[in-house]
Specification:
With about 500 residues, the protein is an alpha/beta fold. The chain is about 35% helix and about 10% strand. It has a single domain, classed as TIM Barrel. The protein has 15 helices and 14 strands. Helix 13 links the parallel strand 11 and strand 12. The longest helix is centred in the middle third of the chain and has 25 residues. It starts with 13 loop residues before the first strand and ends with a helix.
Length: about 500
């Protein structure tokens, strides 16, 4: 008997790109939209953290307010995605466009209508939407009046928001993600970004050390319950819905073969990645998490019905972001590098981006196998890419070979994982059109196949143009991942 193994990307593989409302749309106070948490975040740099201001200040630059103006230009942008051959487009819905204060009794019709229009354009181009319900933003009023996800009442506001979306977009949207990078709440910088909580002390998003683990894990529990409720309600509204989780995959290698390093890497994988995966995929807290809570005086208020809710609301598929890997060591005296806002140690075998994110395509194959071996669910990589500075040539062309190289190597790693037996169904590289960086608020940290003429100070025409990677990715999609080597010039 000959064993048949996959030879490449499956038929109907979902090639596309990913974005988030607060980094893309702009129109922050148009169409009845309320202020969101991201609207209160100033611009930063690689070395200066973004800050929250409790009120909007005329002297500050808030990148989300205009972003790249997708709010007015979505038709043009979606046509470009169609030209590249996208099968899927990941976008998020701005919660405060639908419920301006979060706890409003009725949704804002104008906000719902905006997304009707966006979905209609996608349909015109034959592109399937993949919708993140909450991507690093919540109505700011929930942060101010409830301290965000620390308050259990926010669960009901979120579930009501989900129900509104599910009823409105039933038959139009099939793929949903409940929370972007839910596991970011395990870290201090997730406090405001993911948890909409405003801690005492520093208002710099990268240094919210005053936020306690107790508060963050409690907020995370509320998000778990909210997500599970949404999954259950979503399936009741439309049994064809596929509702997934979304984890920021933190790929931790032991720095040495010392058993302490090996064990530490496993512990980081457990707490950083598998805690959230286990609750959302398996419907219960794993033993290692309970031990961690007990040993660190973390006492989560879990109501009687919660375990049942978690069990009944497990997800249909698993998605994650992957940008880089880091090393971990039990020895504290190691130089630190950044890594998708996730700190770790330098790997001597890897190069890093200008923002010090280490480039590791093989780590993606490792991650895909590691996750699939545990959950056996269909998977999508819903974020991956290289944030880099692009130079525009005098003739307007942009030769982003470094981006092509990065993506090509990651796609090769994906193919290897598929041959390993991983059920990978889609790939949406991050920031398929240049947008605002979540970590730094910069424009110059670009990920796109499509260039947007706007600089860090907010100056520029906002005109769109095709980079070399645009033509390259178009060919990748057309060949279902078989043609990876053609140069961007010959692909034109
Ligand atoms: C992910 C987020 O963590 O990384 C995105 O989900 C973010 O919102 C992306 O934009 C890249 O990070 P950055 O800081 O380069 O924008």
């Amino acid at each position: 008997m000959t064993t048949k193994i996959p030879t490449g990307f499956p038929e109907h593989f979902l090639w596309g790109g990913a974005t988030a409302a607060n980094q893309l749309e702009g129109g922050y106070n148009e169409g009845g939209k309320g202020l969101s948490t991201s609207d209160m975040m100033t611009a930063g740099t690689h070395t200066t953290s973004r800050r929250i201001t409790p009120e909007l200040l005329p002297t500050e630059n808030y990148p989300s307010h205009e972003a790249i103006d997708f709010y007015h230009r979505y038709a043009e942008d979606i046509a470009l995605f169609g030209e590249m051959g996208f099968k899927v487009f990941r976008l998020s819905i701005a919660w405060s466009r639908i419920f301006p204060n979060g706890d409003d009794p009725e949704p804002n019709e104008e906000g719902l209508k905006f997304y009707d229009n966006v979905f209609a354009e996608l349909k015109k181009q034959g592109i399937e939407p993949l919708v993140t319900i909450s991507h690093y933003e919540a109505p700011f009023a929930l942060a101010k009046n409830y301290n965000g996800w620390s308050d259990r009442r926010v669960i009901d506001f979120y579930v009501n928001y989900c129900e509104t979306l599910f009823n409105r977009y039933k038959g139009v949207v099939k793929y949903w993600l409940t929370f972007n990078e839910i596991n970011i709440l395990t870290m201090p910088f997730g406090t405001f970004l993911a948890g909409a909580m405003i801690p005492e002390g520093s208002k710099e998003i990268m240094s919210m050390e005053s936020s306690s683990e107790q508060a963050r894990y409690q907020a995370l529990h509320h998000q778990f319950v909210a997500s599970a409720k949404a999954v259950k309600i979503g399936h009741a509204i439309d049994p064809n819905f596929k509702i997934g989780c979304m984890i920021a995959y933190m790929c931790n290698y032991p720095l040495t073969s010392h058993p302490d390093d090996i064990l530490l890497a496993q512990q980081k994988d457990n707490l950083g990645n598998f805690l959230c995966g286990d609750v959302q995929v398996r419907g219960e807290y794993p033993g290692f998490a309970k031990r961690y809570f007990a040993e660190n005086n973390i006492d989560i208020q879990i109501q009687d019905g919660d375990p049942q809710i978690l069990l009944e609301g497990t997800v249909d598929f698993y998605t994650f972001s992957y940008y880089s890997s880091v090393c971990v060591s039990a020895d504290p005296d190691q130089a630190k590098v950044g890594g998708n806002m996730l700190m770790g140690l330098k790997n001597p075998y890897l190069k890093a981006s200008a923002w010090e994110w280490q480039i590791d395509p093989q780590g993606l194959r490792w991650a895909l196998n590691n996750i699939y071996n545990r959950y056996r669910l269909p998977m999508m990589i819903v974020e991956n890419g290289l944030g880099a500075v692009d130079e525009v040539e005098p003739d307007g062309s942009i030769h982003d070979d470094y981006r092509i190289e990065y993506l090509r190597e990651h796609i090769k790693a994906m193919k290897e994982a598929i041959i390993d037996g991983v059920e990978l169904i889609g790939y949406t590289p991050w920031g398929c059109i240049d947008l605002v960086s979540a970590g730094t608020g910069e424009m110059k940290k670009r990920y796109g196949f499509i260039y947007v003429d706007k600089d860090n100070e907010g100056k520029g025409t906002l005109n769109r143009s095709r980079k070399d990677s645009f033509y390259w990715y178009k060919e990748v999609i057309a060949s279902n991942g078989e043609v990876l080597e053609s140069s961007s010039k010959s692909a034109k």
